[in-house]
Design a protein that fits this description.
The chain is mainly α. The chain contains nine helices and no strands. Helix 2 packs antiparallel against helix 3, helix 3 runs antiparallel to helix 4 and helix 5 runs antiparallel to helix 6. The longest helix is centred in the middle third of the chain and has 18 residues. The chain is globular and about 45 Å long.
């Protein structure tokens, strides 16, 4: 047996279960948090549940974050929660036109916020939603926007990922 395979076989289970403690930790501290910290944690929980394909929990935390953000007039929290809802429309329902609408709304909210964290990923997802609807010119435009934001943030992984869509 090759040593690389042996090491990989021991580390694989750690990678598969590494998100569960993060979710457990966020859920445990959530009652202690207030205002924007609570909203940001709910949005993160929504993302974690999307990644684990747990639709009900992902939707619950995104909608809760949206409602609390609206009550507090926390624009960044609104932007992130709307972006998460756009991701869910694609991931859980395959509804690209609704995802496009939500992503455009999220981008408008990001433009009103000083905190642009998540903007590049939202442009990225919007480009994907447009591409999936055969709106290639729009997809290219949003891909370019995404690339520019990733580049500004020096996010090489994001830049590489969006280049894959641009080349298509």
């Amino acid at each position: 047996m090759k040593p690389g395979f042996l090491i990989f076989s021991f580390l694989l289970p750690l990678g598969l279960f590494s998100q569960k403690p993060h979710i457990d930790h966020l859920r445990k501290i959530l009652p202690l948090l207030k205002d924007s910290a609570r909203i940001d944690s709910m949005n993160e929980l929504s993302q974690q549940y999307i990644e684990q394909s747990v639709k009900d929990s992902a939707e619950y935390y995104a909608i809760s974050a949206y409602n609390m953000s609206a009550a507090l007039h926390y624009i960044h929290g609104l932007a992130v929660s709307v972006s998460r809802q756009g991701n869910m429309k694609t991931y859980f329902y395959g509804n690209l036109s609704e995802a496009e609408k939500l992503d455009k709304e999220a981008i408008g909210l990001y433009q009103k916020s000083a905190n642009k964290t998540g903007l590049a990923a939202t442009y990225d997802h919007l480009a994907f939603a447009c591409f999936g609807q055969s709106k290639y010119d729009e997809a290219l435009k949003y891909s370019d926007e995404s690339y520019a934001v990733y580049k500004k943030n020096q996010d090489e992984t994001g830049m590489t990922g969006i280049l894959g869509l641009i080349t298509q």
